[in-house]
Amino acid sequence: MDETMNETARTPPFAPFEWLLSGRYLRARRREGFISVIAGFSFLGIMLGVATLIIVMAVMNGFRKELLDKILGLNGHLFVQPLESPLTDWKDVAERISQIQGVRLAAPVVDGQGMGSSPFDAAGVFMRGMRASDLNNLTAIADNLKEGSLEGFDEGQGVVIGRGLADKLSLHAGDRITLISSPGASKGASASKGTAPRIKPFRIAAVFEIGMSEYDASLVLMPLPEAQAYFDRRDDVSSIEVFTDSPDQIDAFRKTVLEAAGRPVFLVDWRQRNSTFFNALQVQRNVMFVILTLIVLVAALNIVSGLIMLVADKGKDIAILRTMGASQGSIMRIFLITGASIGVVGTLVGFLVGILISHNIEAIRQLLSWITNTDLFPEKLYFLSKLPAEVAIGETAAVVIMALSLSFLATLYPSWRAARLDPVDALRYG
What we know:
Elements: H1 2-9, H2 16-26, H3 33-74, E1 78-82, H4 90-98, E2 103-117, E3 122-130, H5 132-137, H6 139-142, E4 145-148, E5 158-162, H7 163-169, E6 176-181, E7 190-191, E8 194-195, E9 199-208, H8 213-216, E10 219-223, H9 224-230, E11 239-244, H10 251-261, E12 265-269, H11 270-273, H12 275-313, H13 315-323, H14 328-359, H15 361-372, H16 379-382, H17 393-419, H18 423-429
Parallel strand pairs: 3-10, 5-9
Antiparallel strand pairs: 1-11, 1-12, 2-3, 2-6, 2-11, 4-9, 5-10, 6-9, 7-8
Helix pairs in contact: 2-14, 3-12, 3-14, 3-17, 4-10, 12-14, 12-17, 13-18, 14-17
């Protein structure tokens, strides 16, 4: 008997019998059913918490990436605006800036607001004049034409409009849209009370769709010479939009662009123009992460309560194991394995569920929309036509590590309490 006890005392950590007992404790009998229910809820809580965290982070990442790609694909990364005098020398300035290494396009533009109308309807529009060569290099437009083409854009009076605007006005390529400038946008014709808006029909050369409702429903692209004449800016432009190869490193281009401009200019980058929007998105993302982390924390606390009840229920078993020679370390490891198994399996299942849903989020959205007969992702509200999701490896790994860490920490106190249980008291009062 002494030899058996000595052999048991020398049992290496995480021996087979420790795993065997942990497995038996996880398969609770009928009289321990409540403990089994707590373990089940702990598993579901961790699984749902991990899966939800992965899905939400993926969707938020997808939102940021899609919006960033579409905003930066259509708008410049750095805006060069005139100081002291109008940009009448825009050709030379744009040419010098385009020679900077890392700058892929320097596009002079003329911007204005107004209204577009047809015999069927009317809508507010944002008009932008661009050169045909610059528009062809703007892949967000050139690669997403649904009707017509950009051939001969600089010639005649053809304009390019978004699919949303075309649908609202019931227009197609080849039809005519009447553009009405806002008061004060151009000198227009003299009127007895101020300045009358300029009204002019234009042929629709092409229709584009980039998948961002804000642009598809309001943007009208005009040839630069036509826009200059329409807004009475025959010699100057509103600004020069600079597109770079590295939008996130835009600060590195400021000094070289200022030097290349060769004249007083004011620079505004894309982060400044969209700071409110992207800051709000980041705050929302952080808040969602904290809130959903609480789900995992609550599930981990369920592991604590479940193990404490299991330790109390297995007091006699622990006492018998101790009298047979099991060390305090063995007892602690048995309950560590029991609790950690719930957390590890729940985390892994949650990881798989989260990855699976993230990669099929748009199909799931369409299915739920069809079942409920509601629009679960309004394009006008979220600016995007599809629900995006992008799983970031680093963030996903952080979620998994966090869940595993919380699950492990939750088992320490109950396991320590089981190891410190006095065998004599357990047998006497158990």
